[in-house]
Amino acid sequence: MSSITFNAVIKILGVNPYVLVSKARIEAIKPGWRRPLPVLVRINGMPQKPWRINMMPKGDGSFYLYLHGDVRKASKTKVGDKVTVELEFDAAYRNGPMHPMPDWFEIALSENPIAKNNWEAFPPSRKKEVLRYFANLKSAEATARNSAKLLHVLNGNPARFMGRSWKDGK
Q1: How far apart are CA 126 and CA 148, in angstroms?
Q2: Over the stretch 117-152, which tens digit does the pLDDT of each residue have?
Q3: What's the CA gap between 42 and 158, in Å, rounded?
Q4: What is 105-168 written as a DSSP string?
Q5: Coil, strand, or helix at residue 9?
Q6: Dihedrals φ, ψ of 142, to 5°?
Q7: Which residues pair with 108 in a beta bridge?
Q8: How far apart are the C-alpha atoms of 41 and 48, rounded to whole Å?
Q9: Which CATH superfamily is domain 3-89 in?
Q10: Is the per-residue pLDDT at 28 higher than 60?
Q11: Which of 47, 53, 147, 158 is deepest in the core (most CB within 10 A)?
Q12: In this structure, are residues 63 and 91 in contact, taking their beta carbons and an 8 Å threshold?
């Protein structure tokens, strides 16, 4: 597998911290790749076990490497810091949800055809994002609060949830 190491400055796009990875560096990792690129990443040598991230194409051959909060916390970095980035193509990556659907969510969808239809219309990446979000909730109160909000938006009601505006179940 090809891997690269380079220095960069963490920037921010909206609310998302990122490092821009040039077309030349992408070609060194995975020549000709144009869709989201699964990589293993370490920032300043952290975390110990490289973090799995999908880099997102910018449209000009370069990619955004969005830096999850856990990666920034492990590497003790923030926006504006100059960092050493280690990237390796993640050949073991499989798309689609990685976290199981919680029983309560499966039951709620079976009882609500509108929410179920909107859930089934989601692309795999959105399902993966939602299921990962729920898998990381720590308390029963947070789960209850967020599950109610998810069902609210899946029923087509407008609201803010998971950092985005939802309308018509999308």
Answers
A1: 18
A2: 999 998 877 888 888 888 888 898 998 899 899 999
A3: 37
A4: HHHHHHT-HHHHHHHHHS-HHHHHHHHHHHHT--SHHHHHHHHHHHHHHHTT--EEETTEEE-T
A5: strand
A6: -65, -40
A7: none
A8: 10
A9: AF2212/PG0164-like (2.40.30.100)
A10: yes
A11: 53
A12: no
pLDDT in the model for residue 164:
83
Instruction: Please give the single-letter amino acid code of residue 27.
Output: E
Q: What pLDDT does residue 135 have?
A: 87
- Read off the pLDDT of each residue in 24-52 and give the average, rounded to a whole number: 93
Q: What is the CA radius of gyration of the chain?
A: 18
- DSSP SS3 for 13: strand
The dihedral sign for the CA sequence 64, 69, 70, 74: positive
Give me the pLDDT at residue 97, please.
Answer: 61
Whether 1 has a pLDDT exceeding 70, the answer reads no
Q: Is 146 exposed, middle or buried (0-12, 13-18, 19+ CB in 10 A)?
A: middle
Report helix, strand or coil for 24. helix
The residue whose two tokens read 């960092």 is: 83
